[in-house]
């Protein structure tokens, strides 16, 4: 069983903490047996947006996977997904194609998709809540 703490327990994937430090947020916060993952985008190594949309979505899922792994989780542990889209009707098929490769079979996590007008130069962002598996 995971002990509750009054301090935030930050989780960072390898090699990306400087980017999070620069923007002053944590990749994820572990709270009890839950992991709250910040929005992940399809960025290049320097943090700039990947211009190809399908590659951007694929990279966002890869960044998310790295954060999950840093906390001992996988996509099987994800219970809640929120995605942000700058042009949902034009992007939906591509997002679903990438999602199907990554998320896998039912039962699926719940999912909320939100259309937005601004994502700091990105066209897609994904954030999740995962249950941290008990490895004991």
From TrEMBL:
Pfam families: Ribonuc_L-PSP
Recorded GO CC terms: cytosol
UniProt GO molecular function: deaminase activity
Ranges that cross the membrane: none
InterPro entries: RutC-like_sf (IPR035959), YjgF/YER057c/UK114 (IPR006175), YjgH-like (IPR038743)
Name of this chain's protein: Endoribonuclease L-PSP
Superkingdom of this protein's organism: Bacteria
Organism lineage string: Bacteria, Pseudomonadati, Pseudomonadota, Alphaproteobacteria, Hyphomicrobiales
